[in-house]
Amino acid sequence: MLRAFLVSAIAMATGLFQQAKAPAPPEVDQQAPAFTLPNTDNKSVSLKDHSGKFVVLEWTNHDCPIVKKHYDSGNMQQTQAWAMKNGVVWLSIVSSAPGKQGFVDGPTAKQIIKEKGHMISDMLLDPSGTVGKLYHAKTTPHMFVIDPKGKLIFMGGIDDKPGTNKADIPGARNHVREALKEALAGKPVSVKFAAPYGCSVKYAD
């Protein structure tokens, strides 16, 4: 009995300690969490490198059916190209752990970028899931928009049409594009949060 009690107490204490260590979720209208990650050439890229610019963070997993919906239709690339044309920095982040769906190394990531025609500033690799968990990224895709002052102005799903049907895209509200349009025009963002949808981020066990 004593041993069982001690084991239970240790497990509870460990759980509380882990909860205490977990970063608080990011909040809209607050500073976006700082981070540094390697890109596909193993060069360090920091969020602060892009201070003074709008930044989009896109959590991605090339094997996820929802990600495929947006890339195979060209919707994601078109959104990326529009953003880049307007001076926005677009960072795709892969938080899949080694051995999990969507994991890529640098050369594989480069090949996917080429094959799919990504229109991005960089792809960053987060196999430990540290930055994904810092942002509480839950799905692929999961989108975050950061303004030039480093504040989050949108986070959530790319649009309001969950599902794998490409036919839904033309009638969907693209939350990322609309948030950027409003912010670039000096207007308040009308939709600051949308429920993310897609595949779960494949963090390490």
Q: Strand order within the widest sheet?
A: 5-4-3-7-8-9
The run of helices and strands is: HEEEHHEHEHEEEHEE
Distance between the ends: 30 Å
By CATH reckoning, the class would read Alpha Beta
Beta strand %: 15-25%
- Radius of gyration, taken over Cα atoms and rounded to an integer in Å: 18 Å
List unreliable stretches of 5+ residues: 1-20
Mean pLDDT: 92
Shape: globular
Find the structural class using helix and strand composition.
Answer: alpha/beta
- State the helicity in percent bands: 25-40%
CATH topology, by name, is Glutaredoxin
What is the count of DSSP helices, taking H or I runs of 4+ residues?
6
Number of domains: 1
Question: Explain this structure to me?
Answer:
The protein is α/β, with parallel strands linked by helices and 205 residues long. The chain has a single domain (25-200), classed as Glutaredoxin (3-Layer(aba) Sandwich), CATH 3.40.30. It has six helices and ten strands. A six-stranded mixed beta sheet has the order 5-4-3-7-8-9, with helices on one face. Helix 6 (175-184) links the parallel strand 8 (152-156) and strand 9 (193-194). It is globular. It starts with a helix and ends in a 5-residue tail after the last strand. The model is unreliable at 1-20 (pLDDT under 50).
